[in-house]
Write a structure and sequence with these properties.
85 residues, three-stranded antiparallel sheet, 3 strands
Length: 85
């Protein structure tokens, strides 16, 4: 299954995903830590606020997250092949 479409299915068709939902599941960090890292652009994917308000939620693109996950999977597979042979 395509990672992007899997994310769309998991997040009810949303293409822009709330960081507070993505961070614990995919980055293993709390929403609070993710918000601090988003402010510093120190996450593995770009994060942004759709509005100008500091209260607007942080979002990440499902496309960016899917590309990141695919890259990590490829890296893990390459490492597995090196170790297994």
């Amino acid at each position: 299954m395509n990672t992007y479409f899997g994310l769309l299915a998991e997040f009810n068709g949303r293409a822009e995903l709330p960081l507070e939902e993505v961070a614990p599941r995919f980055f293993g960090i709390s929403p609070r830590t993710a918000g601090a890292r988003a402010s510093a652009q120190a996450l593995p994917v770009p994060a942004y606020r759709a509005g100008d308000s500091q209260k607007a939620p942080w979002l990440v693109s499902a496309v960016d997250l899917a590309q990141y996950l695919d890259k990590r999977r490829t890296e893990a597979h390459e490492m597995w092949v090196r170790v297994s042979n």
